[in-house]
Design brief:
Elements (H helix, E strand, L loop, with lengths): L21 H4 L2 E11 L4 E14 L2 E10 L4 E12 L2 E5 L7 E6 L2 E12 L2 E13 L4 E10 L2 E12 L3
Length: about 160
């Protein structure tokens, strides 16, 4: 796939362990810590997140409470559907379409569009959201944000399952 250069291919992670089980990982509490970097790589935002995933069958709700280091907070909810073992769909209030997630090995890749608030305005951006399952209940999340195919920012988030 070529969009403004080469992109990562999820198939290359097919043999990687531990295997990603999105529903299992996001059942119960998860703690996270992250940064937002602008297009130059400068850190422009730092935050902690408390998450709680609740599932009924293949329908899940992921509740997120962001605490930004500038003192502000934000609550978000993702509504996620497990379509099959390797495919998930998600919706959130600020997501403009259905997020589609494909699992390969230890990785899941979600793609979606959202309205990103910045400086009192909202900007329509595309997100390329990668999560990599690691040992000991750790998950690394890299999220690339693009406008008109050009990277404008990226998130890096480290997550840890609680009570492992």
């Amino acid at each position: 796939m070529f969009v403004g250069g080469c992109s990562m291919s999820p198939e290359k992670y097919e043999s990687f362990e531990p295997r990603m089980d999105f529903k299992e990982y996001f059942t119960g509490p998860v703690q996270a810590w992250g940064v937002v970097q602008d297009w130059k790589g400068d850190i422009v935002q730092r935050f902690d997140i408390d998450m709680e995933g609740v599932w009924q069958g293949n329908e899940g709700e992921l509740r997120e409470v962001f605490r930004f280091y500038d003192g502000t907070t934000m609550n978000r909810k993702w509504y996620v559907t497990k379509v099959n073992d390797n495919y998930y769909e998600g919706k959130a209030d600020d997501v403009l379409n259905t997020a589609t997630g494909h699992i390969h090995g230890n990785a899941i890749r979600f793609k979606y569009q959202m309205e990103l608030p910045m400086d009192g305005k909202k900007y329509k951006v595309s997100l390329d959201d990668w999560m990599f399952r690691m040992n000991d209940g750790v998950l690394i999340n890299r999220n690339y944000i693009k406008k008109f195919g050009i990277k404008v920012a990226e998130f890096t988030i480290f997550m840890k399952k609680v009570n492992l």
